[in-house]
Amino acid sequence: MKPHILVVEDEKHLGVGIKYNLEAENYRVTLVEDGPSALRMVISESNHIDLVVLDLMLPGMSGYTVCESIREAGMNTPILMLSARTLAEDRTRGFDVGANQYMSKPFDLDELISRIKNLLQIANTQPSTPIKPKQQAHLAEIEFADIHVNFETFQATIRGKSVRMTSKEIKVLRYFLENEGRVISRNELLSEVWNLSGNIQTRAVDQVIARVRKIIEPDKTNPIHLLTVRDAGYRFITDPNLSDPNLTSDTPEA
Length: 254
Prior knowledge:
The chain is 35% helix and 20% strand. By secondary structure, the protein is of the alpha/beta class. It has two domains: 4-123, Response regulator (Rossmann fold, 3-Layer(aba) Sandwich); 141-248, Orthogonal Bundle (Arc Repressor Mutant, subunit A). Strands 2-1-3-4-5 form a five-stranded parallel beta sheet, sandwiched between helices. The chain has a four-stranded antiparallel beta sheet with strand order 6-7-8-9, with no helix packed on it. The longest helix is centred in the middle third of the chain and has 15 residues, at 109-123.
């Protein structure tokens, strides 16, 4: 059966062009022009979408919201974002909400097709249908050192200063705190926090880790809570006295 690709693009001439070229590559393609229609298509049990090509600026619902809603539904369908936005923070936000790839407009058609083929190949062994979220009790709030975090409001008080955290920063921090002391790999974070296959190549984990460190650490270049275990992953400790010599920090940020 031909892989089924959903193209979500409100610029009709561009959407039709992408659809035409993907059909020439022997894919089955559905084109929609707004966010809510895209979300319904992906999460509906009557459809089987193998990959989503997703614009960001859409009527009714942004591509960011569509992507995040798909991931929150427990689906790991590959998502390739397309956007005229080229700033680093736009790419970072895209990866934060669960995108697998991000391409800036205008883009090279051959590169788009190549990335689609690569994502489909990686996803061949991964389920793309909804999976039930794991049932586990989550921390509502916590205090450690001179830090207080409310996971329900995304609000933190760090050394007396109020800080608003993003959804992904909160999820990452909560996962570490709920697994304090245990070494957690990047693949585990991709699976448990991003709902993505650990085989996906992305810097999203490292970028969010860097931002969480910037928020909670007294000195982000010499972390005492969110530590790196060389060649293994990360380990979180609330009490710096529990650190050991085998734990090292990442290369300091510029």
